[in-house]
Every structure is written in C-alpha cells, then in structure tokens.
Inverse folding.
C-alpha cells in the first residue's frame, strides 16, 4: 500500500508540474479509456474478517453523452486477505457509473458519480456475488486536450445478503489514474476571422492558447464594422422572417459597395435550452443569413463565414424578457482594408491605433498624433458618435501594473483627443485591459508589439 500511495503522490507532482500547459476539458461525443490504481477499504464492522486496506487496479471505458453527462463501464481487481488465515481470494467488481461534470471547459473538471453493479469474491467453495451501489466523485486535471490525470473516491454499499434491507457493508474505494479521450465535438469557439485567413500560429510551450477576443477587435491595418441585427426568429427555427430582411440588406448593400470586404456572420441566442442545442441553433441561423446574402445580393461565398456562439456571449441579462431579446441576435462583423474616413459604417466601428510606448510609461509620443487624428476626424465628421478607447499591453511585468499602465495609456489618448483635437470629453471613455486580451503570443518581440496597442471602438448612437 505504501508503494501505491507513493505512486499517487508522484503522479500528483507530475500534474502540478504540467499545469501551466494544461488545456480544457470535456467534449460531447468523446470516448475515454481510464486505467487506474488505488485502494479498497473493507467495512471494519460487517466484514471484520477481511483486512481493511487492499490495493486494487482497474479500468474505465467511458462515453460523454454531453459535455456535462457521461457514462462509464468500470472493472476492478484486488485480493481480499483473511485476517485469521492470511488466505487471499480474488475480488472482481463490474459496474456501470453515470457522471456529471462541473465546469466541463476548465482545466480542472470536478465531477459526481453514481452507479451500481456486482462484486464477486472467489472463495475456495462457492463464489460470493454481492450487489453493490457506489456514490462519490473526483477531479480530472487536463494536461492536454486528450489526456487528464484523475483522482476518484467512492462509497461502496456492498449488499451481501439476499434482502437489501437486511445486511450491507460500508466500504470505500479511492484511486488515481489517467484518462485518454478520443474524438468528440470541440467546444472551443474559434476566433472570428475573414474567409481565407492564415492558419493560426501554434501555442508556445510556456503560453496557453490564444483566447477569442471580442468580435470588434480589428486586424492590424484593418478596420471592422459591426452591424447588430435584432430581428427575431420563430422559436427553434432558422428561417428568416420578412420583417428581418431590410436589416440584412444593410450588410448586403455595404458589401456590394465595397467588394474588398469580408464578413463573419455571428449567431447568438438567449440561455433558454441546452448548451449544445443553442450552439446548433445559432449556427443554423448564422448560415441562413449567410445564404441569404449569397442568393439575394450576389456576395461571393468565399467572402463570408458563419459562426454560432449559442448563449456564450450575452450582451444583456437573461433574467428578463428584454435581456433575452437583446441576446437573440445576429452580428455582421465586416473586415475592411481601406481609409476609414471615406466610409460611414452602419452601426459600429473599431480601429486599431498602432502606437509604441516607452517601457513602463504612458506618454503619447508626438509621432503618433496622425494615428489619433484618424479617430478625431471620424468623430468630427459624424458628430453623433461616442468612443471607448481601449489600452492593451504585452505580458511583461506585473499583471496589476499592466492593468494600471494600460488604463493610463488609454486615458492619455482620450486627453489628446480632447486637448489637441477638440472632441468633447463626454463622448469619450477609457478602459484598460492589461495583457488579458492578446491578439498574438508574447514569446517574440513581434508578438509583444502587436499586443501593445490602442483600440478605438466607435458607436453611432443615432441611425440616419
């Protein structure tokens, strides 16, 4: 038993060492194989003739019905030792367990388990076949997309008499092992990108993968125009209503007028229904809008991408009917590579100001006045607009200091717009995000330079 305890301890240390590279998590439709070792504690009262703590080995074969619910067939083997005779008898258990995974997208996935089956003890005479129920849970520590270290504990009710209400033993099982996942549907939402985008760069060993940034995040050197289509769909359907078509026409006419543009059509839902159902529904609705743009406005399909996000990106509180309505929406994110001053976007504009700051400082250098002038000229031309100036940093230095520094840089750009270009301060706000919204990896000087940026997100508050 000491060897097993030492082995489990070494496995825990290995998981902690690999935690920085861990990925998340459970996938619907995935199969799993989970070998494990551990110990079994027999009831000291009802099975006092057996030594309490015995080593065991086992194997679990699982399938994820959804990201939250899974089922496993479990088999274990150990040797039960008689305290008086020292005679050892083989013990086999076979059971079916149902699992509920909490936080299935996390690196650490806690779960509860409930199941039942049969325990067979091979005596010299007739074998003993007992019915068992198990209740417990554990944790899965994902070291990669497909491999997790697993700790598990179960309370085993061993009904060793013919009547369930008569005699049973309270036994315990604990184990550690590995889980290997195969197949399944990925839950990771790919970052919105125009068609024919370059293949995403792989994550360096010391950095977690890039997370999707908000859709309005501009590609360096580009601008993004965001149109929110709030038209309702019929419940559980993806057919475009007649009254929604004029809003979609804004996207079609805009892309016809500017043939160098590409667009991502995003579908979003409220939180009524399951995660998987809403992901599928939002994808079908986004594809319906994309197909309408192709068929009715002649937009080449290569310029369009459809992406469903389900209820993962709410813009309002789902606790109210009004909030649910706002969350049931289609977003058209149009990527453009031309002078912003020549174009009036239908609803929102996001431009990236590629500005360099001295390390640890927030002073705006004189050579970047022309970049800031782009925002000022646009806001002067369209006087009903407001803007949020976002500050972003790389990951060099302390996280709290980076948040403070990015806020100071954003505020200094706001001050420049007010003091140098005469934009009313009431139309501007500053927000610092530190290193929390990377658009590139921080392992190269070029990547860090991309992450040190200022974004101007401009909202048209009155439609004309």
């Amino acid at each position: 038993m000491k060897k097993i305890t030492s082995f489990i301890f070494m496995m825990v240390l290995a998981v902690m060492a690999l935690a920085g590279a861990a990925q998340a998590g459970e996938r619907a439709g995935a199969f799993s194989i989970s070998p494990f070792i551990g110990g079994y504690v027999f009831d000291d009262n009802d099975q006092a003739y057996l030594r309490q703590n015995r080593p065991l080995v086992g194997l679990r074969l699982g399938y994820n019905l959804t990201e939250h619910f899974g089922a496993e067939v479990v088999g274990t083997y150990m040797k039960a030792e008689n305290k008086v005779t020292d005679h050892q008898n083989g013990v086999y258990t076979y059971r079916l367990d149902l699992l509920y995974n909490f936080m299935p997208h996390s690196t650490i996935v806690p779960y509860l388990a409930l199941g039942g089956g049969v325990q067979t003890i091979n005596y010299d005479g007739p074998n003993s076949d007992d019915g068992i129920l198990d209740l417990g849970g554990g944790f899965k520590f994902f070291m990669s997309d497909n491999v997790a270290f697993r700790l598990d504990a179960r309370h085993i009710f061993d009904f060793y008499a013919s009547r369930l209400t008569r005699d049973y033993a309270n036994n315990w099982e604990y184990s550690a092992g590995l889980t290997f996942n195969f197949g399944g549907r990925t839950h990771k939402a790919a970052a919105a990108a125009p068609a024919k985008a370059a293949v995403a760069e792989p994550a360096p060993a010391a950095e977690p993968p890039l997370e999707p940034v908000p859709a309005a995040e501009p590609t360096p050197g580009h601008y993004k125009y965001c149109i929110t289509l709030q038209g309702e769909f019929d419940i559980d359907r993806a057919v475009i209503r007649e009254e929604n078509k004029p809003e979609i026409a804004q996207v079609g006419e805009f892309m016809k007028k500017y043939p160098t543009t590409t667009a991502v059509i995003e579908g979003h839902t409220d939180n009524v229904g399951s995660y998987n159902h809403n992901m599928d529904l939002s994808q079908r609705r986004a594809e319906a809008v994309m197909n309408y743009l192709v068929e009715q406005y002649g937009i080449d399909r290569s310029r369009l991408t459809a992406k469903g996000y389900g209820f993962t990106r709410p813009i309002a509180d789902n606790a109210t009917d009004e909030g649910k309505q706002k969350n049931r929406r289609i977003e058209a994110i149009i990527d453009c590579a031309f002078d912003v001053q020549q174009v009036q976007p239908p609803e929102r504009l996001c431009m990236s100001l590629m500005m360099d700051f001295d390390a640890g400082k927030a002073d705006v250098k004189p050579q970047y006045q022309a970049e800031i002038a782009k925002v000022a000229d646009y806001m002067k031309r369209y006087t009903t607009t407001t803007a949020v100036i976002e500050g972003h940093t790389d990951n060099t230095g302390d996280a709290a200091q980076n948040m403070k520094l990015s806020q100071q840089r954003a505020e200094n750009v706001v001050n420049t717009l007010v003091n140098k270009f005469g934009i009313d301060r009431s139309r501007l706000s500053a927000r610092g995000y530190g290193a929390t919204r990377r658009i590139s990896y921080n392992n190269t000087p070029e990547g860090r330079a991309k992450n040190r940026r200022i974004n101007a997100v401009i909202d048209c508050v009155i439609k004309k």
Q: What stands out?
A: The chain is about 20% helix and 35% strand. The first helix runs from residue 2 to 18.
